[in-house]
């Protein structure tokens, strides 16, 4: 019985989206439906998808952002399970099957994720398993700390393919650790739709951090599982722009992202009074880091007034390096000069 709705949000990815789509067509477990939400593409996305319109649902909307595009797909999905695939990534052929098999026998699990690898523009796989690297970046141990439980997949799926005989699955309640940042990748996940539906209205508050909020909010309520095998390939593209101008553009783009991180950190971990009381030091450290990051980004684009405000907040939550105090004074002086002469 087909149970999976696949949602692909896309924006100006006509040169990649067919490769993503073909990776769905070769799945050993074929989905119930494939929903492509075109978020106002100005390239020839619609044209390249035309030969596939009898096999997909194509929805076009004015450009609203990645979060609203995913929400539109969720609204249209009819499957019991929902998978998201970014339009420049691709799946291994057995990705959906092993996830569906696991969810079928583990009804308490809300989401099953897998590991992933990167591939270059010329198709070459490089680097190791990416989730392990992400956890090391946050000084977390994926096994035993974040995920408390571990077993071979074959214990739950006795007739599993030989490729998975020695593959482990880890699972547990990971909400506490999601405080530190994104620990899972959206293109690897298979969600129970009913778990998303319970938080669906909240998702409209987030665009840049839509997937982060969805993972963290579900982790607050349910256990999440992780299959320790890369079943997704994530495209790594070479940046088209270089130099100072590109850096400033990047800073401006990153600011709304960090502001959303700040908002959801407050909503999920500070307003949760029980959690905040028992994890106050960790939460304040995280808040200090976000404010510090925002302060440096505002400083780089010359908004010294906002930089000063966030340096103040950063220090109030956590005392960082001595240079933070130096930049606090510097941005205060520059902000004052700007007000006096402008």
Automatic annotation (TrEMBL):
It comes from the Bacteria. It holds the Pfam family Glycos_transf_2. Gene3D superfamilies: Spore Coat Polysaccharide Biosynthesis Protein SpsA, Chain A. SUPFAM superfamilies: Nucleotide-diphospho-sugar transferases. One of its GO terms (molecular function) is hexosyltransferase activity. Residues 5-131 form the Glycosyltransferase 2-like domain. It comes from Desulfofervidus auxilii. Signal peptide: none annotated. This is Glycosyltransferase family 2 protein.
């Amino acid at each position: 019985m087909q149970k999976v709705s696949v949602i692909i949000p896309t924006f100006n990815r006509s040169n990649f989206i067919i490769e993503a789509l073909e990776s769905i067509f070769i799945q050993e477990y074929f989905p119930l439906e494939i929903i492509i939400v075109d978020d106002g593409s100005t390239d020839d996305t619609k044209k390249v998808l035309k030969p596939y319109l009898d096999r997909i649902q194509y929805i076009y909307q004015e450009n609203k952002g990645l979060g609203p595009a995913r929400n539109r797909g969720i609204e249209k999905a009819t499957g019991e399970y929902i998978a998201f695939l970014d339009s420049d990534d691709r799946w291994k052929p057995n990705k959906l099957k092993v996830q569906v098999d696991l969810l079928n026998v583990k009804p308490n699990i809300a989401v099953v994720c897998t590991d992933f690898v990167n591939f270059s523009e010329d198709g070459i796989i490089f680097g190791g398993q990416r989730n392990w690297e992400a956890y090391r970046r946050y000084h977390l141990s994926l096994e035993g700390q974040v995920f408390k439980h571990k077993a071979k997949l074959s214990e739950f799926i006795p007739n599993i393919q030989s490729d998975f005989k020695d593959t482990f699955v880890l699972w547990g309640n990971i909400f506490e650790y999601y405080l530190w940042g994104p620990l899972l990748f959206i293109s690897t996940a298979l969600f129970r739709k009913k778990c998303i539906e319970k938080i669906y209205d909240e998702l409209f508050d987030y665009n840049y951090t839509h997937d982060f909020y969805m993972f963290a909010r579900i982790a607050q309520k349910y256990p999440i599982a992780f299959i320790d095998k890369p079943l997704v390939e994530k495209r790594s593209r070479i940046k088209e722009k270089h130099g100072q101008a590109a850096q400033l553009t990047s800073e401006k783009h990153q600011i709304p992202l960090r502001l959303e991180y700040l908002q959801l950190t407050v909503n999920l971990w500070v307003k949760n009074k029980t959690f905040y009381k028992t994890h106050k030091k960790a939460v304040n450290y995280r808040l200090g880091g976000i404010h510090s990051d925002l302060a440096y980004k505002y400083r780089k684009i010359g908004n010294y007034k906002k930089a000063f405000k966030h340096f103040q907040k950063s220090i109030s939550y956590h005392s960082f390096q001595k240079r933070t105090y130096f930049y606090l004074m510097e941005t205060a002086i520059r902000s004052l000069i700007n007000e006096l002469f402008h």
